[in-house]
């Protein structure tokens, strides 16, 4: 096992309460990273606060997590996420179903 595979690597999805858009990221410390987003320490997300953590996956491989993050940022990946989050979206906004 390599050094990078000793910890969990998280791919996560945040949803902005301001504009409803999603942010996809990766980290080894999900709690710390989410707090950084909440505190406005991330340049990419600061103007769109507040956020909700709506999805995450954990794995031991950095390479697998990085590939998963890249996939979720593609059209096919966004569709896959939409299917996984269908119940969440429908409960949050019944008009979309």
Summarize the structure.
The protein is α+β, with helices and mostly antiparallel strands and 97 residues long. The chain has helices spanning 30-38, 62-72, 75-84, 86-92; strands at 9-16, 22-27, 51-59. A hairpin with a 5-residue loop joins strand 1 and strand 2.
Characterization of the model:
With 97 residues, the protein is α+β, with helices and mostly antiparallel strands. The chain has a single domain (3-96), classed as GIY-YIG endonuclease (3-Layer(aba) Sandwich), CATH 3.40.1440. The protein is 38% helix and 24% strand. The chain has helices at residues 30-38, 62-72, 75-84, 86-92; strands at 9-16, 22-27, 51-59. Strands 2-1-3 form a 3-stranded antiparallel β-sheet. A hairpin with a 5-residue loop joins strand 1 (9-16) and strand 2. It is globular, with a radius of gyration of 14 Å.
């Amino acid at each position: 096992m390599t050094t990078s595979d000793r910890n969990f690597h998280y791919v996560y999805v945040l949803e902005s309460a301001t504009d409803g858009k999603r942010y996809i990221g990766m980290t080894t410390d999900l709690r710390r990273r989410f707090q950084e987003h909440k505190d406005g320490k991330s340049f990419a997300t600061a103007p769109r606060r507040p956020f909700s953590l709506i999805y995450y996956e954990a794995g031991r491989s950095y390479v697998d997590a990085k590939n998963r993050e890249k996939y979720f940022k593609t059209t096919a990946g966004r569709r896959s996420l939409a299917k996984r989050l269908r119940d969440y979206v429908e409960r949050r906004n019944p008009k979309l179903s």
